[in-house]
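ok trying this again, last paste got cut off
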Amino acid sequence: MSEQHRPLISPLPKSWPFEEAAKLSAHVGARAVTADRPVLLETGYGPSGLPHIGTFGEVARTSWVRQAFTKLTGLPTRLLAFSDDMDALRKVPENVPNQEMLHQFIGKPLSRVPDPFGTHESFAAHNNARLRAFLDGFGFEYEFASSTLYYEGGRFDAALKRVLEVHDQIVAVIAPTLGEERRATYSPVLPIHPRTGQVMQVKMDAIDPVGGTVRWTDEEGETFETPVTGGHAKMQWKADWAMRWYALGVDYEMSGKDLIDSVRLSGKICRILGGQPPAGLTYELFLDQNGQKISKSKGNGISVEEWLRYAPAESLGQYMFNAPQRAKRLFFDVIPKATDEYLAHVGKAKTLPADDAALMTNPAWFIHAGNIPADAGSPVTFGMLLNLASVANAETPDVLWKFIQRYDAAATPQSCPMLARLVDHAIVYYADFVRPTKHYRAPEPHERKALSDLAEALRGLEGEEVSPDTCQNLVFEIGKTHGFEPLRAWFGCLYEVLLGQKEGPRFGIFVALYGIAETVALIEAALLRDERAAG
């Protein structure tokens, strides 16, 4: 092991980014790593549709591997966010305007398709800008790369000529994976038609590695000789991926489970070209509310903008950090849980010294790039705020702050900026998702008696300074006294009868926040409401 690759920390922290960092370190091996030739991590984005959360997730996760690698080795790195914007528009996405106009440009490079939104010079430029705006807003350190600019600017010229030298070997790798008809015409080279601008999938009549050209015939029977350099042609995507790894010397790139075969084939092609395929992680896919894979063209699942409407960006980071090799639903109901997981990790991180190894297993350490702000975190969970909004029918933040400041007089929007953001998000989330689905059920006779006893017991505490634990213990005792088995059935009663929902908060904290008198009134109103309904 060379001195520059000797690990700077030991033992290895038990988190998946550090496991990936160790894999990357082994991949780099003993080769010289300098500021001029740093370790290169790459993410890919196909701008055929609006950026979705999966795209963000790939950049976030790769950034965390980079952070762990830097901590582990101290070696210089680059992160390249690469947009395949020279790919052809194969179909018109369902979630963009001016669909009829876009249909006229099917088959042309995305960077030469007009922007249906009318704000940028091309559809690719629009989607690239959307992606970059979010990545910049989240604070990622990355370099953006455009496939079109790399092709047209000559960055790939040498690699493209190398493709021609091993053209038949590449065909031999890909051909067995194709149907009979496609196999007969396959070439890794896609020339751009000099008149129509179409990306052509045609048989090559001749390959000239020395001249760096291909000869081919279009559907009209006209023959052309096209340079593969200077943006006059591009590669089929598996060969394109391999060519990019080879040309740029990519050391690390993760990809989804649906691309396992493509990674294998691209790796073979990269070796044929004379390069070494990168190390990488295969992550599981994100699923929408129906269990279907999320798609840029369908626009299902959640968009980046939608998530940020309902919760802070840090919560999205938490969701992406969790178990990348496990398939997960990506719908609106995952947002509160991810938000409160983030808050819990921040709270735990603040109890650890800055040099504690356990800190490097904490998602908050990665989400904040190793520097967790002093004002991160919140004394009140997002789930609790949603429950407060629910019982108070809150339409403005002021309603929630009234309860919060009775619970913690020192809490203000200025002293607790994260809490202030959570309050604003909770109002919106409650209005869109909680209020429309609230459904109160009537209590069973034995539940009615327990609720009545709980109201009476709480009434006896009015005027006293009571802790959340005291309230929680009282609720437990009432449930046990009335024989609820299991005890969670008692809490289910509280949530369904009082809050109109299946799940809810730790009830002692809820009482402390909402107020004892207010909770008593809530119980009595529920009992009175049900009596009137029964009558």
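PB: full thing came through this time. The chain has three domains: 3-181+235-283, 378-438, 439-534.
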